[in-house]
Design goal:
With 139 residues, this protein is an alpha+beta fold. It is built from four helices and five strands; from the N terminus they run E-E-E-H-E-H-E-H-H. It has a three-stranded antiparallel β-sheet with strand order 3-4-5, with helices on one face.
């Protein structure tokens, strides 16, 4: 198995990935009872040597609901009846999960409204206030 390239900055060595095969459930006739096409791909961010500490902390925080009690991330694929295609699908799923978890949102820059925007807002407020005072019935 080859190394898994997640981002240009992060490549997981093949030695850190554990792969297991099992029989898929569901319909499929005799094939489902004979062939182990289900793929379980396991990777531990806790013990990974390629992660920087800040990336590890970010991953553990964002993926805390997906990790086992031992801190292992398990990705399963039963998409096809072919073990090799399921293996590639599981690797792609893992890469996608890690890419999404390592994505840091761009910090927001505080901006001020323009003078024209302030003027328009006040004018709209004044217009609405006049509209409501004109609705009042005088006795």
């Amino acid at each position: 198995m080859a190394d898994l390239v997640v981002t240009p900055r992060l490549t997981i060595p093949a030695g850190e990935l554990e792969i297991a095969f099992a029989r898929s459930g569901g319909p499929g006739g005799q094939n489902v009872n004979k062939v182990s096409s289900k793929v379980d791909l396991r990777w531990s961010p806790l013990t990974s040597e390629v992660l920087a500490e800040e990336d590890r902390a970010l991953l553990l925080e964002k993926l805390k609901n997906r990790l086992t009690t031992e801190g292992v991330l398990i990705v399963t694929s039963t998409k096809t009846r072919d073990q090799i295609k399921n293996r590639e699908d599981a690797r792609a799923k893992l890469a996608l999960i890690l890419k999404a978890a390592l994505d840091r949102p761009k910090p927001r820059k505080a901006t001020k409204p323009s003078k024209g925007a302030k003027r328009r807002r006040i004018a709209d407020k004044r217009h609405n206030a006049e509209k409501k005072t004109n609705r009042k019935v005088e006795l």
